Each structure stands twice: as structure tokens, then as C-alpha cells.
Amino acid sequence: MADGKEDPAVFTSTSLPSDPRLMATVTNAYLGTRVYRDILHVNGVYNGAVGDTHRADIPSPINVRMAVPSEDSMAETFTLNTRTGTFSHVLQSTDYAATHQLYAHHSLVHLMAFSITIRRLARTTRPIVVQLQTPFVPKSQDLDLNRGPDFQGAHYIYGQTLVPEVEGGPRPTVHMLWTPVPQALTLHGEEQERSWEFLTAVAESEEEAKRSYSEGLAFIAAGSLHSSHTHAWATLWRGCCVDLDGPLPLRQALYGSLYYLLSTIPPQGNPGFLFHGISPGGLSNGTQGEDYWGHVFWDQDTWMFPNILLFYPEAARAILEYRIRTLDGALRNAQEQGYKGAKFPWESAATGREVCPEEIYGAQEIHVTGDVLMAFEQYYYTTQDQQLFRENGGWKLVAAVAQYWCSRMVWSEEEQCYHIKGVMPPDEHHYGVDNSVYTNAVAQRSLNFAADVARDFLIPVPEEWVDCAKKIKVPFDAEKKYHPEYDGYSPGEPVKQADVVLLGFPLMHPMSSEVRRNDLEMYEPVTEADGPAMTWSMFAVGWLELNEVQRAQTQLNKCFSNITEPFKIWVENSDGTGAVNFLTGMGGFLQAVLFGYTGFRITRSSLRFNPAFPNDINKLKVAGISYFGNKLKFTITKAEMRIKVTECPQDPRASPLEVVLEESGQRVPLREGQSVSFPAAAGWVQKTSTE
Known about the structure:
Blueprint: E1 10-13, E2 25-27, E3 31-34, E4 39-42, E5 46-47, E6 54-55, E7 58-59, E8 65-67, E9 75-81, E10 86-92, E11 96-104, E12 111-120, E13 128-133, E14 143-151, E15 154-161, E16 173-178, E17 184-187, E18 193-203, H1 206-221, H2 225-238, E19 241-245, H3 248-262, H4 298-311, H5 313-325, H6 327-336, H7 359-364, H8 367-383, H9 386-390, H10 394-408, E20 410-412, E21 417-419, H11 437-456, H12 463-471, H13 513-523, H14 535-545, H15 549-557, H16 583-597, E22 601-602, E23 607-609, E24 619-627, E25 630-637, E26 640-647, E27 657-661, E28 667-670, E29 675-679, E30 683-687
Antiparallel strand pairs: 1-9, 2-3, 3-4, 4-7, 5-6, 8-13, 9-10, 10-11, 11-12, 12-18, 13-17, 14-15, 15-16, 16-18, 19-24, 20-21, 22-23, 23-30, 24-25, 25-26, 26-29, 27-28, 27-30
Helix pairs in contact: 3-16, 4-5, 4-8, 4-16, 5-8, 8-10, 8-11, 10-11, 11-12, 14-15, 14-16
């Protein structure tokens, strides 16, 4: 599937971006930084009260850059290898090469590391000196840092955050150990090559920091620290393949987006890891005044989560567990606004309390509560993991969200239906509106899902849930056959971002093809051209649904103006404003491929497909799709679709899968290791029917 010889997963440049915000990021589930930045962040460690809470800045010992005494003809390259999760800087002359490699260890998540290797290229015996620029100062505006005794050759500092998120709330303590960095390294005359390795260990206990540092030293002694990291990335990529026979920029955007998103997820096989969610700019960003302070929005649940769920349900579960752990904060939010149940915050940090610095969003942009529940729904319908709901707090959350929506509705005698008044829709240009079509539709979906889960668990379904779901107003103009964004919306009014088009996907709100087309045509020309990056992906999915493949590609191509060179960092807005390393935009883009080109739709009983892709793509391969414990590989061309079960669940009670072709009704069993193929058309994968 190559387009020329260039590897679409490796981004190399002879210069760095002039804007430091656009540097590559090295991140794992616990630690993150931008390359050559003087701070790093720890997952879940915030400082500041309520609206001022932000990721706590921790001084970064890995902010090191190589330099050499002035020499002529030095070649310099900077590379982000997304296959190995490694950033490298190479300085090369005719006599020698110096290589700096930097990474956040993917499986040993408390470790960040870098190495410097100097290698002779010519038969000289002169000493070679590489200088290391290390502007590290062990101070922080967010922590009360203290110096502790050295440990196994490492320096040690520790300190507590200064201000809790809420009064009486937690103030985490951060412990950090790091290998001291000299001002220069020398390859002596008798040496041909030498490497130096430097470790940083960060944890919220002294014991864990020291254990991690010692473990890192043991890996260094065995010569396997970096190889263990690259092995973890190789394993991650083996379980998650998306590639296509198409233009190189599209393939690069896919690899880049997957790398930055996969960098954030908990390591496999570590179910006890406490995950604290994904913010729009990831762990590398979110200091005070930047990238929404590192808060968690609907961006996680609506835009990033579905991509993670398709490949790594264990990581998806960790995201849901973050929402379950912050349920008490959501219950308190609803109570403070005079409602029952749980209202998830527009901006969430450590506690689930509302931490948006501007009150209007927290008060009015309530669709986030339905967005959270939709992630739970998608997870439930692809895993049937009843334990999360029965034993681990999932059902309590589902029921609390349903209760919130019922208490948020008011009955209209005039229209004989329920209204939700005074909200801000996803289109944030409008506020204080009644009956936002997206908000009301997602509320309806929440209630229907809650009722379905209750029935599955043989729990009586409150009549109120059924009544509110059945009778909520979902605005529709029967004359023009389209969905107005809210009561009183006038066609042609400018819209900030994807809003009504989200009814078709991801909400899958019932509508005819004619209405779906009308919604797309009504809102496409009035949506801000340089608005948030995820918008055009959703228009693309809509046009793909209607098999308007070139029109879809025109929309998806708009995303490329949000991708910066050379490291494929996304910016929120195409003019460069807003969040950087904008994972939300990447998530939308990935959904356009993973749900758009394939036509994947998660339903209560099946994983539907209906492939459609544009003329310049000949073949799409998606491997590692998880469905009821199985792993599936899809290979799609314009003429044919091939499905293979590459892995089956270990549980002998698990039902096997089958493919059902929509047009003929033909059912084809799916057996592990065997491929089935059929003409590319609509159908679905389901548990084998016993009828």
C-alpha cells in the first residue's frame, strides 16, 4: 500500500517549526511534554481553584538539546517516528554523527528517557565533544518543591500542589528523580561509539518514583530500555492498523493522528491504572492559559472515544471509569443548579465539579451529559461488559443521567411535548435557546439507552424515562424537511461548528435520506470556514452516507489546513488559533475514515458496514477491530469486501459471529483464521443467530 518510497509514519525535517507550540509531543498515559519544552505534566495533577484549575507545571529534566562547537558542514535532522514513539535529533559531519533520542516510555509510564549516541564515521582519534544545552531549573509556579537526598545517582525533588480544585479537595504530591545531565559529553580518542542514557521518573509517591527509577536502571543495564519501549509501541500498532492505498498526505495524517491519540491511552494489561481523561490538547499541553487548561470536555467522549473503542476497549473502559469516579461531582453540579441526577461538567478536571472559567458554558452547554452517556452506550453495545454497569458504578451513572434529563425538561401544554429551555448548543455562537435539536436528541438517546440497560438487568424502568423519551420535542420543519438548530432558528444564520449534522452521525437519529441531505445542504454553507477542525469530518461522514464520495472528500480535505508541518500537529482553527495538538480534530478525522469510508455504525445488536470512498483511494485495510471480544480485519476495495476473524474470545460460552448481507439476507459464519469475501455493499456483523 505504498505511495512512493516515503514512510507515511515517519516525519523528518531539517528544521524545527518557528512556533514552539507546534513541536512534536512525547506522551504516555501518565506523563507528557513537548519536545524542547521546560515543563512536563502528570495525568490528573492539577493546581488552582475551580475555574483557575490547570495542569500543574513540573520542571522538565528532559529538556535537553545537543549543540557542537562551531564546525562547518554539519547536517541536522529532526525526526518523529510514530511507529516507535520516538523523537530524534541527528547532527552529522564528515567525521562523526551524534544522535539524541527522546521518548515517554509507553509501558513503564512513570518514566521518560533520552539517550545521546556519538559514533565516528572517519578514522580519526581526536576527542569529539557534544555540548548539552540544559536550561533545567527545579522550580514550579504550581508546586511547593523541596530537594530530597540523591537516590542511586539521581537527584530528587518532591512537592505538593498549592491550591486544591475545591475546598478540602486533594492536593497531590509529585515526586521526581532524574539523572544529572552534564554540560558536555566526550567520545575519547580510543572509542568508536558510545551511548549515554538519562532517566526521569515521576510518581505521586516516593516509593513508586524510586521503584520506577530502579526499574529503568535495570533496563539500561540490560541494554533494553529503548527496545522495551519500541516493543510496546510495536504491539500497540499490531493491534490497530488503518492503512489505505491512496495519497501520501492522507496516509501521513492517519498515522500522525493515531500516534498522538494512542500516546494518551493506558498501557495494555494494566487494568488498575487510574486514568484521568483526555483533554483537547493532551498531556503535553494545558498549562495555565493554554489549551483549555488541560480540562476534559465532550471532545473526549464524542470525538476521541469511538476511535479508541474500536481498537482498544480496555482503554475505552478506563475513560468511562474516569467519568464514574467523577460522578459525585456531577451529582453536585446538578443539585447546585436545582436539578436531580447527574450533570457532567462542560469542563472537568480532578473532581467532576464544573471548572469552566466562564459560567455560561457550564450552565448552558448541557449536551455534554448526553455525550458522556453515548460513550457508555457504544461501549456496552460492542463489549456487553455487564460488570462495568452492574458492579463498577456504570448503572448508577446511567440512571443518574436519565434522572437529570427528566428533571431538566418542562411540559409544554401548547405543543403537548417536553421542552429543554435555555441552553447553548454545540454551535456556541448561540446561547439561551430553547430546544436545541442536538441537545434534545442526545437527551432522548440517553433515556432510551437507560431504559434498555434497565430491561437487560431486569430492573423496572421508571415510567418517567419512557414518557420523556417519547414526548421530547426534536425540532423539525415539515415544510422545508430539515432540522432547525433550535426553536426560532432562521435558515442562513451563521453556525460556529458541526451541530445539526451530528444528528445523522454519531447520533443516528432516525431520518430519511432526503432530510439527511437537506440538513447537510442547509448547514454546510453557513458553517464557519475556519472553525474547529473536527467540523468538516462530520460533513464528510454525512456525504459518504449518501454515497456522494467526491463531495465528502472535498469536506475532508478542508481538515488539511489544520495540520502543521513537519510533525503533523493539528491546530484547532485553520488560522492557527485555539488549542494545539488538537486531539479533537484528529478524532473527528479518524472517524471520517473509520466510520465514514467503512460505514461502520454501532447498534444495539450489530456492527453495521456500508463502504464508500473517493476515487483516489483504491483499497482500505482496517485491522484490530474489537467486537464482543473478537478481533476483526476488514479489507475493502471498491468491488470487494473481505472480513477475517484474527482472534476469538477465550470464553467457550462466547457466541460466534456471522456476517449478514443486507440486500440478500445471506448469512455467512465467521470462524477464526478464515476469511470471507463478498461484493462491497451494506451489511452487518452480529452474534450468530439461533433462529
